[in-house]
Design brief:
Oligomer: single chain
CATH superfamily of the largest domain: Mago nashi
Shape: globular
Radius of gyration: 19 Å
Structural class: alpha+beta
Number of helices: 3
Number of strands: 8
Distance between the termini: 65 Å
CATH class of the largest domain: Alpha Beta
CATH architecture of the largest domain: 2-Layer Sandwich
Number of domains: 2
Strand content: 25-35%
Amino acid sequence: MQGKLTTAVLLVAISALAGCDIINSRSEHLPNSVATTYEYWMTGGFAGSSMHLQMDSLGSAKLTYTSGSQSQTDTFIYRLSASELDTLRDVFQASGFFYLEDLYKGPLTIMDGFNYKITCNTTSATKSVSIVDYPKLPNGLGNLLGVFYRISERIMEKGYRF
């Protein structure tokens, strides 16, 4: 028994020194690598607008926004701050993204509603979650949508338009 306990303690200590998280079973897909990319789509509304945000774990971001009423497309580039990246990673991890359902679809069509899609690509996994006319989301997913939306607003406000 003591040999197994010593081995377990040693394994946890080595993992901690190496920066691994073996205690959290959700850690196998967490986006901490350079190769992680995030995509966020928001489409719909009265005017039929669309927004597509692409980001990577180093903070590079590109936002394409099309206003349905004016049929005009704007593209912005932006560099996320360390604080913005930390918030994104924290909320992403708290959402349990890789364990969410692939589709949240409401029982009724919502007129002029918005539909959303979030995709995360890591070196070990790719996952997409779509939300279609779904009125009540799990808290973690709702929080994640909020972070993506706020980042999108900031990019349109402060990003470089080209």
